Amino acid sequence: VKIFAPNIEQREVVNHLKGSPTEEKRNVLVESARLARGNIQDLAELKVSEFDAVIFPGGFGVAKNLCSWAVDGKNCTVNEHVSSTLQAFHSAKKPIGLCCISPVLAAKVFPGCEVTVGQDKNVDGRFPDAETASAIAELGCKHICKNVNESHVDKANKIVTTCAFMCKAPLHEIFDGIGTMVQEVLKLA
């Protein structure tokens, strides 16, 4: 397992204690290295031939830095290294795992694919971003409704997705869903 991130500036830096943006500037690769404890490489250096699969985590980092979904929604652009990495794994018929908001990357890069970001309605207040499902459909992709502890496998495209924090759920349920995504990715590898 190796960890990669693009060597780009963050769109904005957020003080998560206060929940508001700050004026400081940070680099995505440097911040990712902090989380990965230094064991990380620039995404531009990734060689698909050296890996059996790729998994993208989700979160605001995806929506703000790997693409512009947080600002532009379905009209977003995807970072060139992220897009080329996804396309290379797809072309090599190697599985792609995406969780939380990152299934929108597949929706932008692979028209017609199937993904999940949970439910298409805010069921019991647990899916506050349910409109993401309709935006995915507007991009020409099929959104599959799934519970937080489940994943969806698009066998034709070898794309496995789960909603993770797109659902307001206990951490153990989110953990279970991410676990099923990883298991399904490994089965396809």
UniProtKB/TrEMBL annotation:
SUPFAM superfamilies: Class I glutamine amidotransferase-like. InterPro entries: Class_I_gatase-like. It comes from the Eukaryota. NCBIfam families: PRK11780.1. This is GAL3A protein. The gene is Gatd3a_0.
